[in-house]
UniProtKB/TrEMBL annotation:
Keywords: DNA-binding, Transcription, Transcription regulation. Coiled coil: none annotated. Residues 11-78 form the HTH gntR-type domain. It holds the Pfam family UTRA. It comes from the Bacteria. This is GntR family transcriptional regulator. InterPro entries: Bact_HTH_transcr_reg, Chorismate_lyase_/UTRA_dom_sf, Tscrpt_reg_HTH_GntR, UTRA, WH-like_DNA-bd_sf, WH_DNA-bd_sf. It comes from Streptomyces anatolicus. SUPFAM superfamilies: Chorismate lyase-like, Winged helix' DNA-binding domain. CDD domains: WHTH_GntR. The keyword DNA-binding applies. Gene3D superfamilies: Chorismate lyase-like, Winged helix-like DNA-binding domain superfamily/Winged helix DNA-binding domain.
Amino acid sequence: MGTTQLETVPEPKYWHLKTVLSEALDSEFAVGEILPNERELAARFGVARATLRQALEQLELEGRLQRRRGVGTTVAPPRMGVAVGSAHGTWPGAVGDAWQPADCAPALPPVGVARILGIHSDDQVHTVRRTRVSQGQPVATELLYVPMSSVAELTGMDAPSGAARARVVLRELARLDLEGQDRAVELGSARADDAKALDRLPGAPVLVVTTRFFAEGHTAAVSVATYRADTCRLTFGDSGGVEIHHGPERHAS
């Protein structure tokens, strides 16, 4: 990979640099290999470090690179295939659900979630935290917001704490007749707690899947799941479900 001057390229410099770097990842770098530092790369390509950062950020967003704590920027492996939730007839925690309950506690929901649930922002909800691991790697974390009214039988009960309480909330929620659900996907940046759970740096690109579960004519629960954008590629199937598929095979020498 020789030095490439980009002064006369009509497209944005960082975009052309991204293309050059992407080709180099295929031909010169192996999966997991650490890239040279920013100063070396910027000098090699004759660009400002700000331009280089834009190109690296775009490659990270596309799943070609990973930023790892205490390691640096490495070549990412191909995206792994994991089913997210193509079945519209099941509650979270149903048989076959790949998520693992981690914790549950009463808390005030974010204002946006309270609005979706149709409750006041000062009304506490059961907040269930779940995690998902695939091929030994954390790929997603989820916050499931369940209004007290959706699991009224838990009111006043001496429910267990932590993961045990989460399982109780999920079990009670499943007693409702699920009428349907809808999903929305958007690109976001990892918050500090999500970044820690996903072994990412704060601000790393993530895919946020928000799911509303309907029962008894209203929104009975809201799930906000955060997926690693470098690991997951989400597509919508004919059933309306969301799936994660392997990305194109990449070979490095």
